[in-house]
């Protein structure tokens, strides 16, 4: 008997302030029609990784990408064709919770996307009651919106095998499985990080199959290592503070890249590593692989800026390897705030070093950066943050800039998180939560406040930001923090001020993790990713009379969307005909 499973992937997209949210509140009003909801064209990293692993153990696992775009009738037809008595489970792989306009879309029966999709899952269960539904994500909160029999979080190669053995009656209940009541439902959950660790993992390749119908302009996720050597105070990645080399085997890396190139012509990847340049030997390993390949790979990923500044010998290794699009989690250019979060390099040294990095990589031929910052870190006020913003937009003009208010999860949110950040754990342990006199950390005092004390008035924000702000201000799972420099509402007012500046599209370009939104489908290529969304001279000449055709890169995806929609529709028909 060949054991079978199906994994649904595609719940992995989000808006980001380095990307479409900025553009949606600019001067151009052209947007997708409300009935046209944009679905992610990105392939599901977790689904393909777990499928690859289980196939090595004799399972027949099929991945179904873009599942939010499938109609109920199409999914039910697929299940009728695929599910038989050997099918053990239906998996759902998620990276982020479904959110934004797509998730709010109302269907004909008045239900939103998540309600509609959950009802479809229940219909699948009714037709095939012997299968179990398993939700999987790095952070379990991303999959809790789905009605599943089990939830598994973290790197799951070991844990999923234990769970499936239990489901088939071969083993007792996996160790560490706990039942939590969340949103009125009891959830059976396994935290792999604690009970079934799968890091390091020398062969973490994702092996795509003929029935995945890959394209040369797909930009898959590439996993080079697991875990991060650092433990920044705000970070909630699942594996932090690791020691030693947690990168993959060199031959595994080479074979994955060659397989994708020889079979589909794929050369461009986004890297899932928390920090690519935390280890010199890891960079050297990827450099050696790239030199063996008959093509030049292109990678986009997280690079720690202070390491690049202090280790210029990494530059050539990174460039040779193809790591030429970097996301720098700078967080702040305020020294006090930087030390608070664990990034204490003197800002003047950091800025000087980043300009040297920028110039060196640019002179080599290709360089794109996203600089990410957090609004409201203790120790930084409005003027300091805006000063940092101005430096980024001046010195990294045309690159990508991300900014968002400080998030601290608490209560129900904390209960759902796989790996709360150091700051969230510290906040949860603060003394006297009923009458909080403050939490002092690294010399900075924070305390709890509320919407009334902050004078919250959503009409002060652009309408596109009000739902997000309301979640932060009123959601019980989000801390209403304050310190002597700023509070969470003031952070949102500053966020609104920066985001709705109409000249912002002339100062920034595509975020490095969103290339797939533009490249897949053929409207743009890697060189286009070097351009700002809008040329400054065009903006000055046309002002309020801008049209979508005036942009270098269409920020609303009005041109790209029909092409990607057709790609997904063709994929669905190929799957149904397989």
Based on CA atoms alone, the radius of gyration comes out at: 23 Å
How far do the termini sit from each other?
21 Å
Point out poorly predicted stretches.
20-36
Alpha-beta classification: alpha/beta
Query: Which percent band covers the strand fraction?
Result: 15-25%
Largest sheet: 7 strands, mixed
Query: What's the number of structural domains?
Result: 2
Anisotropy-based shape: globular
The CATH topology name of the largest domain reads pyruvate-formate lyase- activating enzyme
CATH class of the largest domain: Alpha Beta
Characteristics:
2 domains; alpha/beta; single chain; 16 strands; about 575 residues; about 15% strand; seven-stranded mixed beta sheet; six-stranded parallel beta sheet; pyruvate-formate lyase- activating enzyme
Layout of helices and strands:
Elements: E1 4-11, H1 20-24, H2 45-56, E2 60-64, H3 72-82, E3 87-94, H4 100-104, H5 113-127, E4 132-137, E5 150-153, H6 157-167, E6 178-182, E7 185-191, H7 192-195, E8 221-222, H8 250-264, E9 268-271, H9 280-292, E10 298-302, H10 305-310, H11 314-321, E11 323-331, H12 335-341, H13 347-364, E12 368-375, H14 382-395, E13 400-405, H15 411-416, H16 422-428, E14 439-441, E15 444-448, H17 451-454, H18 466-474, E16 481-483, H19 488-499, H20 504-507, H21 516-519, H22 536-542, H23 560-577
Parallel strand pairs: 1-2, 1-3, 3-4, 4-5, 5-7, 8-9, 9-10, 10-11, 11-12, 12-13
Antiparallel strand pairs: 6-7, 14-15, 15-16
Helix pairs in contact: 3-5, 8-9, 9-11
